[in-house]
Amino acid sequence: MKSHTEDKPYKCSLCNKSFKHLGNLQSHKRCVHSNRRPYQCRYCGKMFKTNHGVRLHVRVHTGAKPYSCRHCSDRFAWPNLLKRHLLESHNEGTWLSCNICQKKFSVSDHFKEHVRRHEGVKPYVCSECPKRFCTAFELKRHQLVHSDNKGFACGFCNKSFKCKMYVLRHFKGCSSVMGFVDI
98-147: what fold? Predict the structure, then answer.
């Protein structure tokens, strides 16, 4: 019956997002608000919150492309890339167009996030400060500000950083200072 109504009785105490089923709320809390990562990639050691996440990630290492186009020989690692290919190359499907700026999307979640930005909706709230964000990823990236964990280190000078983007930026400069140049 819940699936036929708009009733969402299970509310997240951290971001006020609501769910129809308790299991969905629990999954949301584990994936969005928890830092626990019990699943590890056997190729690179990267840790994930869900078994599904690690299974998807493994495609980066194996090159697996399980999604194939029914019109041509192209194959894709992700369903959203196949969907975009079908729209762009074979005019199959329907673009989702923003009424405000006319930007087009092939993935409904990306479209919804885009519309939230126009509307100024920021449902993800930091538990440490009053800042709010449009996406769970932006909240997660922000939460590094409140953490002392520096899990990324430069291979040349061992300086440590809170996020991958910062160490990659540093690495380019550090490697050239250390005498290594791009060939």
Answer: Double Stranded RNA Binding Domain (3.30.160)
